[in-house]
Design brief:
99 residues, 3 helices, Alpha-Beta Plaits, alpha+beta, four-stranded antiparallel sheet
Length: 99
């Protein structure tokens, strides 16, 4: 099993419509065939602690069987379309892959 977690830090000056479009396009990643689990969200409203980062806007966690499935996810047309249509909206993307 491989867990692929991505944090998106959007540009501060994007419109509400662009933010909504980003969320819609991001959710489409959950329809990619070779994934075993997909979770999407934004920072939880938990009590602040020094170790918690709430500066990101959206996060996804994708669970796949192995590195080969991860690599297939990366080149899936849905994933590539998301990047092409949304990359202009983010300042930063941080990825953590865990097996």
């Amino acid at each position: 099993m491989l867990v692929h977690t991505v944090f998106f830090y959007l540009k501060s000056d994007i419109s509400a419509a662009d933010r909504a479009m980003f969320a819609t396009e991001l959710a489409k990643l959950g329809t990619i065939d070779n994934i075993g689990g997909f979770y999407m969200g934004s920072p939880a409203e938990v009590p602040p602690r020094p170790v918690i980062d709430t500066t990101f806007d959206f996060s996804i966690t994708v669970v796949v069987d192995d590195v080969e499935a991860h690599n297939a996810y990366q080149i899936d047309p849905i994933h590539l379309a998301f990047i092409a249509s949304c990359k202009h909206l983010w300042d930063r993307v941080q990825v953590y892959d865990v097996d």
